[in-house]
Each structure stands twice: as C-alpha cells, then as structure tokens.
Write a structure and sequence with these properties.
Blueprint (H helix, E strand, L loop, with lengths): L1 H17 L30 E5 L2 E8 L9 E6 L10 H9 L3 E5 L16 H15 L5 E7 L1 H12 L4 E7 L11 H7 L4 H11 L4 H4 L8 H16 L3 H11 L6 H8 L5 E6 L7 H10 L4 E5 L6 H4 L1 H13 L2
Parallel strand pairs: 3-4, 3-5, 5-6, 6-7, 7-8
Antiparallel strand pairs: 1-2, 2-4
Helix pairs in contact: 2-13, 3-4, 4-10
Catalytic activity: Hydrolyzes glycerol monoesters of long-chain fatty acids; 1-dodecanoylglycerol + H2O = dodecanoate + glycerol + H(+)
Subcellular location: Late endosome membrane; Lysosome membrane; Mitochondrion membrane
GO cellular component, one term: late endosome membrane
C-alpha cells in the first residue's frame, strides 16, 4: 500500500513538473498581432515577410545580391535568447550594402514569429532554419552562417547536421562553452509549478535590472534604451514571448558537446570568432577556447565590448567580418 501511494505521488509530482508551463502560460500556438495591410515596417532592414512552416508563421527578410551566380553564398543571421533579429541590424545592413545576399529571421517565440507550445530546444530552431530554407527554395548551394550568443549554438548544430551546406561560420559572443548560468537555487525556484513561471514573468518584466544592464558596456546610451523598449514591446504584444524564454531556459542545451565541435573541426570550414573582452555572460576565455578547438579559426577581440557588442560596437565587428567574407 505504501509503495502504491509513493508511486502515485511520484507520478503526480513528475506530471506537474513536466507540464509546469501549462499552469501559468497560455497554451497553443501564440502569434504577435499585426496588420498585413499596414504600410508601417516592422523593422528597418527591408521588406518584412511571413511564411507558414510546420510549427507556425515565421518572420523573415531576404535581401538578394544584384549579382547572384551559381557560386554565390547566402549569408544567414541567427539571433540569440531574447533580442530578435534587430540585434544584427547594423551588421546585416552593411553586409547587404556590400552586395552580399542575406537572409535574417526571427526564431520561434521571438520578434514577429509565432510561438509554438513546444520545448524550445536547439533541434527545434535548427529544424526551423532548415525548413525555412527548403520552403523559400533560394538559389544558393552554400551558406555563411552568423550566430550570436545562443544563435552560435544553433548554427554550429546546423553545420553538424548539414555539413555540405555550410561555407563559413561567424560566431559572435557565442554560447556553447561555459555560459554563466543562473544559480541552481534560482533554477530550482523557477522550476516550481505556478510559482516559478509567475516569478519568471515578474522578473523578466523588470527588464532594467542590474542583470540586464550588466550585459551592456554603455547602458547610459541611447542604444540601451532602444533595445529596452524593444523588449518591453515584445512582453506586451507577443503572448508567447515570455513562455518561449522560460522554456528555453529549461529545454535548450547551451553547452555544445565535444563531439559536435570535433565533427565541425574535421570539415575545415573557415570560422571567425568575434568577442568582447568585457563580456559578462560568455566570458572572453570562451573565445580563446573556441579558437583552440577550431584550429584554423580567426579570432577578433573587441576592446571594451560586452555581450551586446553587435549593438554597441558594430563597426569593430565589421572590421573582421567584411574581409572574412571576401576571403576565398
């Protein structure tokens, strides 16, 4: 009898833990409302487009080169945990202006892409990118993949699964090695059904916290205020945004396996590593470690730059990116 009660309790606790998001966040596929007839651009990077994929509508922008040939490469930009495609805005626009073909999109649950009620893990985002490319059927045999923070894990996983499609890798402030994780006590509290998600929502909505400001080199400047407003709009307008971030914390493996890195290293793909020397989330030691693991990689350290280097120091990043793209 005691054994049966123990099994029932354990099963109940396991069920509640597994479906903890269902008790606080709305279920189903969630969309950010927008007017398709509106003439107002959603971003400043080009014509905003949407496509229906297996797990929801995906927001993307495609900017082709004026001289696409059979040997042309498509530059694909993948953002990170919370800031959508706009984190690449300055770099994306400059690469477009240099007459390179470019594709940028919002990951599920971010920006203007739908939020499916699925575990937000690396394989979901890799499948999103793979399906997007298949659906668009663009005339490119190979891709240059840009990944920032969490996006660096996604592009490396994509490279591992589709090695013949990748020409170059650009990793900016990349996760995948020793990311500074929240304390285990905090993770344990956040995992408590109902209580955890509510605390998470309250914490994330206070987005001007010391933790957020610590990711910026110059939080007193306009760029910080601009992206703070972007975050606030996402919290208010996208009903699946915070749910997606919450799921990502628990379901996304920010640590790349050594097997993944070894398999990519064997491909001898050119890799550029761009990092801020004052990064408080993915310490600069990770940049040097990546440089050791990818033996033929190029390392570019940006002085005085933090984790938001693409926003605060885009020109310094471009100093390494532009010649890297031109190098055959």
């Amino acid at each position: 009898m005691l054994l049966a009660i123990t099994i029932i309790i354990a099963t109940g606790v396991g069920f509640i833990y597994k479906y903890r998001e269902h008790f606080t966040f709305p279920g189903g596929r969630l969309s950010r409302p927008y007017c398709s007839a509106s003439q107002t651009a959603l971003t400043c990077m080009g014509t905003d487009q949407f496509i229906e994929l297996s797990f929801g509508k995906v927001h993307y922008i495609y900017r082709p080169s004026t001289t696409v040939t059979s040997s042309s490469k498509l530059n694909i930009f993948v953002h990170g945990f919370s800031i959508p495609m706009e984190i690449w805005q300055s770099v994306f626009q400059k690469v477009v202006n240099d007459n390179h073909s470019c594709l940028i999109f919002d990951l599920y649950g971010r920006g203007w892409s739908d939020a499916p009620f699925l575990p937000m893990n690396v394989d979901l985002f890799v499948s999103q990118l793979a399906e997007l490319l298949y659906a668009l059927n663009l005339p490119y045999e190979k891709y240059n993949l840009f990944g920032v923070s969490m996006g660096a894990v996604i592009v490396q996983r994509f490279t591992e699964l589709y090695p013949s499609k990748v020409s170059k890798l650009i990793l900016c402030s990349g996760a995948g090695l020793n990311v500074l994780r929240p304390p285990m006590l905090l993770i344990s509290i956040l995992s408590i059904p109902i209580v955890g998600p509510i605390l998470f929502k309250l914490t994330m909505q206070q987005n001007d916290s010391k933790m957020v400001r610590a990711l910026w080199a110059y939080p007193e400047k306009d760029e910080y205020e601009q992206f703070k407003r972007l975050f606030q709009l996402a919290c208010k307008q996208h009903p699946g945004y915070l749910r997606s971030l919450y799921s990502t914390i628990f379901d996304f493996n920010f640590q790349l396996s050594s097997k993944s890195i070894e398999s990519i290293e064997k491909l001898h793909i050119p890799v550029l590593i761009v990092w801020g020397d004052k990064d408080t989330l993915t310490p600069v030691q990770n940049a040097y470690r990546y440089h050791q693991l990818y033996k033929e990689s190029i390392l570019h350290i940006v002085p005085e730059a933090n984790h938001s280097l693409l926003i605060e120091h885009p020109q310094e990043a471009l100093e390494a990116i532009e010649p890297f793209l031109l190098d055959r």
